[in-house]
Amino acid sequence: MIDLHSHILPGLDDGSPDLAMSLEMARLAVADGTTHMACTPHVMPGVYENATPNIAEAVQALELELYRAAIPLTLYVGADVHLAPDLPDRLRLGTVPTLNGSRYFLFEPPHHILPPRLEDFAARLIGAGFVPILTHPERLTWIKANYDVIERLNTLGCLIQLTADSVTGAFGRTALYYSEKLLDEGRVDIVASDTHGASRRRPGLSQAVVAIANRCGEDEAYNMAVKRPDAILQDRPLVPIGKQSARKSGGSSAGRFGGLGRLFKSGAL
């Protein structure tokens, strides 16, 4: 599986505090079935002043430590990008990283306040040639009163990423409710861990993949955990699933994962 949202780089934000934690997170991710992971520390003006050079350097350093520890996890440069007026320019100049240098980037709106003209800002980003991936909308406190904003952002061209722990209920009833609503409406493009540690917000996608497979079918679970993340890292064009006119209904297809959900449940993986 491919995890496009993690805070595994040591000491860059509120995620891993040190190398020992990063290595433990990597071990847990690999044990759960993750083979590729985007390293996406926060880029938040005035709080986390990360940029492409220091993130890329941190990824290279962690790659070396993973090699020394014989942990088979492939890393990619990325960022969890917060709203800022100069964001289109910084993306264009490359000072804020996209996912593996692609057109796609993780876009995190404020959690508790809906910014004015958010849709206009997203349209500017899309018009500049970038594709925002809206991170964990199910966890935004303003989604209750402004669900229509999420719908319009999706229709505009923003991809939708759910947090794995939201899908399994670990983030509470509200996040679970909106995760299921977005899944049932066919709006979810990607599932990712948003891991911050080895105990709190652990890495791993398998439980969420099983839940999605049971709800939407294994083909769609495969798309969210493997096919679309791979397309993003390869910078292939994607149309948000919410913009597509037709979508397969749920079902227990075993074509993609080959019965992976049953293996996860049995503890074989």
UniProtKB/TrEMBL annotation:
Keyword Protein biosynthesis: no
Record GO terms (molecular function): manganese ion binding; protein tyrosine phosphatase activity
InterPro entries, per database record: Caps_polysacc_synth_CpsB/CapC, Pol/histidinol_Pase-like
EC code: 3.1.3.48
Catalytic activity, as annotated: O-phospho-L-tyrosyl-[protein] + H2O = L-tyrosyl-[protein] + phosphate
Broad class of enzyme this protein falls into: hydrolase
Keyword Zinc-finger set for record: no
Family assignment from sequence similarity: Belongs to the metallo-dependent hydrolases superfamily. CpsB/CapC family.
UniProt protein name: protein-tyrosine-phosphatase
Protein's organism: Mesorhizobium ciceri
